[in-house]
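Input record (one chain):
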Amino acid sequence: MVKKSLHNPIYFGEIITRISMLTESSVRKWGKMDVAQMLRHCDLVLGIALKKTELDPVNPLFGTIGVLTKIEMQVFNNGIPRNMPTFKKLIVNFECDFNEARVGLLKTMNEYWESFTSHNLPEKHVLFGKMDDKDWGFLEYKHLNHHLKQFSV
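The corresponding structure, as predicted from the sequence alone:
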């Protein structure tokens, strides 16, 4: 099975196309967020790699679980399970404008690509530990894919 990465121009373009297919009336299959909130959430998550979203430290037990989860996802090429807990700073439970959220995420996607191509991604994630470009591309693709599947695109 192919391990897709946000760092591959083909899969980066695929994600952009899928984001563009969303509409304000796109219906979720699971979870609590509406489509605009999901777009804003994905924007915040990508912001971690751009050092725009700063997460609070986690206790060592959760850090160990995070590192093991990263390894397990890479070895087995697993997706992200539905309804997983997330950092409070990444929870979007307020009203969002769909067009603003989509434009914002697409802008952040382009900033992410620039950061990746200029080798400026962080060397560490508060939950997943040590990160290299391969880790960022794989995990960011998995996260975006998870939420786009949530809205059937």
